[in-house]
Amino acid sequence: NIDSTLHYIHNDSDLSTNSSFSPEEERKSKVQDVVPQALLDQYLSMTDPSRAQTVDTEIAKHCAYSLPGVALTLGRQNWHCLKDTYETLASDMQWKVRRTLAFSIHELAVILGDQLTAGDLVPVFNGFLKDLDEVRIGVLKHLHDFLKLLHLDKRREYLYQLQEFLVTDNSRNWRFRAELAEQLILLLDLYSARDIYDYLRPIAFSLCADKVSSVRWISYKLVSEMVKKLYMASTSTFVVDLMNELVEKFCRCHKWSGRQTFVFICQTISEDDCLPMDQFA
């Protein structure tokens, strides 16, 4: 009986979540039958500004930390109960609250499914991308986990924004760039050969010339995986163009560090069997 009721609520709520409610309807929209209603009402009241000031300044952070668990318990059919609270927390003045949500938005996307994610989470995700580095790192660490849940056309929109991750509030924050290189390796599976060549290649080459060796070492792996991916693609011209650019940009570089980078990239390509040996030669 519960399953059939939840199925009915789910179908009904999809139609009603976007409409504007009167105060009475707003109260009814937060009613569900999974947990005691008083318990949910108590949880939702945690984001009340007056309560947060008088009770505990950290209460909003605790609320944000618990939200994916509450969403999982209630199920996606009852997301309408939490939507307003989530948006309130996502725009909280404290960056620690927004950071907490940024680190868990990919988990919430799995719970809600692609339709609700596209409508309610993508705008929040886009806001986090332009936030402080402390918030952006939460999004960056799970970039692949979130983007793989989106439809291809929506996913491609983020290709234009990946370049922005190279810029940080503090240029000495090299771990941010290292994390970007790690995520780009995973993202290779989500995009076509042309997208990899047009958008990810310039970022990878920039990371290969980073001032910090830890970032460069991850970037060598990124380039080698890129070579493998482009070689396996049906259009082989991309991998030839990429290898020619590696020779031109690094092998013939007037700086010794550039020529050293070329050797390390060759080493990685060879060790990981990214190319047949005749093609490598």
UniProtKB/TrEMBL annotation:
InterPro entries linked to this entry: ARM-like (IPR011989), ARM-type_fold (IPR016024), PP2A_Regulatory_Subunit_A (IPR051023)
Protein name: PP4R1 phosphatase
GO molecular function: protein phosphatase regulator activity
GO CC aspect terms: cytoplasm
Gene: Ppp4r1_1
Keywords linked to the UniProt accession: Repeat
UniProt cross-references to SUPFAM superfamilies, sorted A to Z: ARM repeat
Lineage, opening ranks: Eukaryota, Metazoa, Chordata, Craniata, Vertebrata
